[in-house]
Design goal:
This protein is α/β, with parallel strands linked by helices and about 180 residues long. The protein contains nine helices and seven strands, in the order ααβαβαβααββαβααβ.
């Protein structure tokens, strides 16, 4: 089984993640994905043979809509999701405006935005089609996630931010088999 098939199997058997994907799908947002830790942590938990999933601080729903860049719209989407799954800490962000927060040139689409995130294994997302098929966004592939390698994204080389995020999120304590890879 290749990493896409492994990831598909892992997510499709996860009732919580499938419920989140079904809730997100109801918004019918353009180019949407549940991203970053939603997918990354599931793989890392599996690779660490955890019986209980590591609690998510939040669930990042990202999408791309150049027609409505308002933060108020993102908050309205969050409220809709909270009504569907009130126990989830949703964070909805339109990637068409997020370049402003990071000092980047405008992103072309959701995948381009995801490809700019700090760590390679964080540059991942999954959505659910109306045919109930999982769709993955992984600009660098999923191999780093499955091999537990954590490297700085060469598209956004920020060694200080990389180090701070790993320490702040306690990744090496939660997932001690992670390997920090120096690539810049």
């Amino acid at each position: 089984m290749n990493v896409i098939e492994q990831t598909h199997h892992l997510i499709s058997k996860d009732e919580f993640r499938m419920a989140c994907l079904k809730a997100a799908r109801t918004l019918a947002l353009p180019q949407w994905f549940l991203a970053a830790g939603f997918l990354r942590n599931a793989i890392w938990d599996h690779q660490h043979h955890k019986e209980q999933m590591t609690p998510l601080n939040d669930i990042d729903l990202v999408y791309f809509d150049t027609q409505d860049l308002s933060h108020a719209t993102e908050l309205a989407y969050q409220e809709q999701l909270i009504r569907l799954l009130p126990h989830v800490n949703w964070e909805v962000r339109n990637q068409a405006r997020m370049h402003l927060n990071h000092g980047h040139l405008p992103y072309h689409n959701t995948e381009h935005a995801i490809s700019q995130w700090v760590e390679i294994p964080t540059c991942v997302g999954v959505s659910l089609g109306y045919d109930d098929q999982l769709v993955f966004c992984a600009p660098f592939g999923l191999d780093a996630n499955w091999s537990l390698n954590v490297a700085i994204n060469p598209n956004s080389p920020q060694p200080n931010v990389f180090t701070q995020r790993i320490a702040k999120k306690h990744w090496l304590t939660i997932w001690p088999k992670l390997v920090l890879v120096s690539n810049v």
